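step: validate -> pass
step: tokenize input -> pass
step: predict -> running
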Amino acid sequence: KATLPDHDGRLRKAIANAITCGTGKMDGRFEQSLSVQRPSGLPPLLVVLTPLVHAPYGLFESAEGGPGLLVQVIDAVAKLDLCVVSLRKGFGLTAAEARIAGLIGSGLTAPQAAKAIGLSANTVRTHLAHIFDKTGVRSQAGPVRLLGAIGPTIPSN
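step: predict -> pass
step: emit ->
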């Protein structure tokens, strides 16, 4: 269930289509991805639906004997958390600076990041200036490039 009504309708329709495909009533391979907005203002979740087509010998069969459905919910922000820890340790960012770098790195604008974490736009701009100084980047695209280059890692203590 999605929180926003229009997203919930799209999600329900996509699930119904995936189940129909899993019964063998649709031709071809079906996989659908859709984004689901969050009311918090954080970047949307990515939902990937893959039917597990009914096959002989009970392969991918549900307890009721019908088709199965693999539902993957991908949270880019959670994946980003590991990158932010590395960014914080590598460049000596404060916790607030690292959090803002992560939000900007996930694609939010400074005003969107401010709204998402309950800070003023001026405070976020001040933190961004510190991030720029400490990392040597000169634009909001900089944290995106840094986080992409770091990739998710398991931080050491």
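step: describe -> Residues 71 and 149 are 29 Å apart (CA to CA).
step: cleanup -> pass
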